[in-house]
Amino acid sequence: MSGVSTPLSSSSTLTGPLSEPSSPKGQKGGLNAYDTVSPHTAPGTTTTSPVAYTIEALAAQHSSSVVVFDLAEQAGFGVRITQWAEETDVKVTRAQTRAGAGLGLVGRLSEGTSEDGARATKGAITAFTTPEGLAQMVPALSILPAPSSSGRLVIQVAAVTPTPTLELTPTLAPAARALASLGSDFTVLISSTAQEAAEFAALSYSLSSHVVHVFDHSGATRETGKSVFPEVASATSTLSELSSFAQFTYTGGSDAEVALVLLNGPLAALARLLASHAPGLGVVSVRALSPWNIEALHKALPESVKKVHVVEEVPNGSGSGPLFGDVLTSGLSNVSVRGHRVPSKRSEAFHNSANAFAKFITEITSIPSSLAQGAKYKSLAFLSTPTVASLTHLPQITAHTFLTQGGPIAARLLPVYDAFASSQGAVISRLVLTPSNDEHLSKAPVSSIASLEKQVDCLTIVDPSLLASHNTFTLVKDGAPVLVLASGGAPEVASRLPREAIEDINARGIRVYTFDVENAAAEIGDSGSDASLLQTALAHLVLLRIYLGATATPAAVQTLSARIYGDVVAGVSSTVACDAAWSGLVGVEIPVPEPLAEDAAPPKKLAAFAFNALNLDDPAYDGRPAPAIPTLGSWAEAAKRLIFREAFSPAVSSSTQVAHATDPALRPDLTEERFLVTCTVNKRLTPLTYDRNVFHLEFDTAGTGLKYAIGEALGVHGWNDEAEVLEFCEWYGVDPKSIITLPAPGNPSQTHSRTVFHALQQQIDLFGRPPKGFYGALAEHAKNRDDAMALRFIAAPEGSATFKKLSEGDTVTYADVLRQFPSARPSLSELATLVGDIKPRHYSIASAQSAVGDRVDLLVVTVDWVTPSGSPRYGQCTRYLAGLKVGQKVTVSIKPSVMKLPPDDMQPIIMAGLGTGAAPFRAFIQHRALLVSQGKPVGPLIYYFGSRHRSQEYLYGEELEAYIADGIITHAGLAFSRDTKKKVYIQHKMREDSEMLGKMLAGPDKGVFYLCGPTWPVPDVYAALIDSLVQFGGKTQEEAAQYLEDLKEEERYVLEVY
């Protein structure tokens, strides 16, 4: 077959007018790179992210706290909200699924916590779980307090359950009895489609009752398709008060005599689709199981109905679900009600095959039902493995082509994973295209209408290695095209096909095509093109040609390419890319296999694909080693690492070697770039009699490769005090010279060995402040009952006040807690696991590398205090820095900062620094002074500085006076609050200069304002700037406030406070 023939010349194509979609050019993050839901997404926003993201975002927006149970997290539900916790005020807690799992939720609602109280305006506590988890939880919920405006429970149940064969299904069977036993304080909502799941999740936070919302997480909420982010009303209503909500929905003719009643879910959605093509059959979907509404059920059923079949999923054939009893006792006159229990194994078959479910409906109703009676849709599938990284986003890019049309085609993309299909698993992505005006077909479960058994219209095999192990061709319909993206051409592809696959292809008339995407991209690409993106685009264009079928022409593909990618595709002309895609597609001639000899061994049976994972990132099946645990050992362990360096040394990339040419192994346990610098100056700036030790440090960076920008911060990897470490070792009874092997924080699967002394001095944060969880973990090691009870009390919600006193009042360290509870003495290996690692402390760099060369300066103040008990305390890192000797080596790293110079040297710079907040501005001034010395024009430089006494804390005073005298600093506002009877702060100096500040910030010169130091003066400084803009910038108070907000966005109003 030539490369110019049409692969789908005899096939029909689901088409619609192609409007101009947003271009995927340059996007490498897949479809979700275009549109990602977050807790900040506004109601009414149309999104293409999976609706599971929306449910998590709603929980983050409307919950005081969220409890993520392990079964939900293993299903990929609850992962994002854990990441979002840092940017929202929601408290996220992980919990284990076990008997009595609901007691923790009961306790939270019964008593609350001090942290929850601060969030009480949100009212709801949300739990994420699965049907199995709900079944474990429900018995304890019988003692749940009544819902109130300040305390309600919302349980979001991701319906996905493993079967005995480890395949995943959305069955509700594990929760059948649990749903029936929930009390009257609960509203039970069950959604079936993606948009419905989003709306029901929002409804959960609008109701005044406790709520259980069950949604299809094996399919609907993981789909990539269009949905609208819903709005949440205030939680003041009951379900019966919401006139807009239909507890029961009916699908079918008004004269139907037979009706199915099902809990809303994937099977209900499939039943609605079948009923829409089966005259005489109706379907009632129960969207709210509790509270049961008899009157609403009567209204939903047509008067013509004579027979009702209640279909519900149960764990086994002898059990019962919650639905049949409710329907039977609803007083349906002249109607026979019959129940049909669907055990888990049969339910699994129904979820995976619409035809199997249609056959079951025909059997129980005697009404012919079949998906083939009227459904019109197309199913495309993509088969790949994680090893083919360059084409990872081909399914998403293809789906995006249809999702952006807004025409008559609805598109939904659903990935399923087989963790055992290869060493790294396999992913099967199914893209279903349906008429958007077919309400039921466009919402039917993808797994049912596009099953993995002869239901795919076009298959793309991205990783051809799967051809040898799996019968990939069983996925497609008879006569369907299969595209293999492989190198070597058609003969190579034909040689890879096993006998079983060849026989299947020939018997069913399957057409096989191949395209060498790597070679095509290499031929037309250049150094300026992105190889991965170009390969994806070429494969996409080839697939579009196959999809267009008989209408495909070079001109048609060119038109599509121009609309999708524009004139350039990944750095290559669109015309060139289309020509390469058109000419590179070739057919594969399938040989007729030779008859097997009588004594020949039977050919190997090819495996079938299964849906048994929701992602391939779990170490349980991706081949990654489990995290290492700390272990005490002998010198032999360290000796092995010295002798067999290649086996134990962490891999170092070439880029890392370049960045750290002098010592690539420097602190291999850390992930950021590290540098070893030498202390050359450690000078105290304040008098010895002064109560604050502010000191200046200089480090030599020559030969280290360290580069930093103005305004960046230096991360110092400080050490614990040597004497305190040795004292602890003696008290704890450990030999400081013994060897301990620790996991590396940057790569927990790797380890490094060091002495106990060095581990406690340089890595283990022994003298840091322990979090609340440490007390609970330590309680497990307490041999004394009183110690164990005290530790558990501190870790419990009731112990919040005690924990606060210990943490904020007494400022206890890990070592202090161990001394306070002496019977709780874990081994050193266990202690290393319980205690976190020392984190680098970051200090604003007080020098400009452009001015000082191979040097970096810091301005530091020693942090020390006395506890209520009279014990002295010291900041770990400032104590380490204050004790540095000239010539001592220090490990450092660089951290970016918001303190950046404006792009134009003529822009006015206004700096306000308090105390050590002067550090970055010293760098600013040095750089401006350098520009002036080079004869370059610069704008005004305004400097405000505040401290207590000029004679004791005028930091870098001599330098500043020289800069003022030379005109480098245009104007200085110095405020020494304790030197005058009336305290004067920098905001007072700024008010004196209101006219200058107002004109600089609001005028055409686009002045930039920076503040660095403690947080307390921020409101007064803000007020001074507002007044200057009102008086001399021609703005009202409201306009001035908005103007400063705009300056923040433009990075012209920059705060770095602590």
Automatic annotation (TrEMBL):
* One Gene Ontology CC term in the entry: cytosol
Keywords from the named record: Electron transport, FAD, Flavoprotein, FMN, NADP, Oxidoreductase, Transport
Q: What is its EC number?
A: 1.8.1.2
Q: Name one Pfam family in it.
A: NAD_binding_1
Coiled-coil regions in this chain?
A: none
Q: Where is the composition biased (Low complexity)?
A: 1-24
Q: Which reaction does it catalyse?
A: hydrogen sulfide + 3 NADP(+) + 3 H2O = sulfite + 3 NADPH + 4 H(+)
- Residues in FAD-binding FR-type domain copies: 672-903
Example GO molecular function: sulfite reductase (NADPH) activity
User: Is the keyword Transport assigned to this protein?
Assistant: yes
Give the residue ranges for region: Disordered: 1-46
Q: What PROSITE patterns is this protein classified in?
A: FAD_FR
Give the cofactors, semicolon-separated.
FMN; FAD
Q: What class of enzyme is it?
A: oxidoreductase
What InterPro entries does the database record attribute to this sequence?
CysJ-like_FAD-binding, FAD-bd_FR_type, Flavoprot_Pyr_Nucl_cyt_Rdtase, FNR_nucleotide-bd, NADPH_Cyt_P450_Rdtase_alpha, OxRdtase_FAD/NAD-bd, Pyrv_flavodox_OxRed_cen, Riboflavin_synthase-like_b-brl
Pathway, per record: Sulfur metabolism; hydrogen sulfide biosynthesis; hydrogen sulfide from sulfite (NADPH route): step 1/1
**PANTHER family in the record:** NITRIC OXIDE SYNTHASE-RELATED, SULFITE REDUCTASE [NADPH] FLAVOPROTEIN COMPONENT
Explain the purpose of this protein: This enzyme catalyzes the 6-electron reduction of sulfite to sulfide. This is one of several activities required for the biosynthesis of L-cysteine from sulfate.
- Protein name per Swiss-Prot or TrEMBL: assimilatory sulfite reductase (NADPH)
Classification lineage:
Eukaryota, Fungi, Dikarya, Basidiomycota, Agaricomycotina
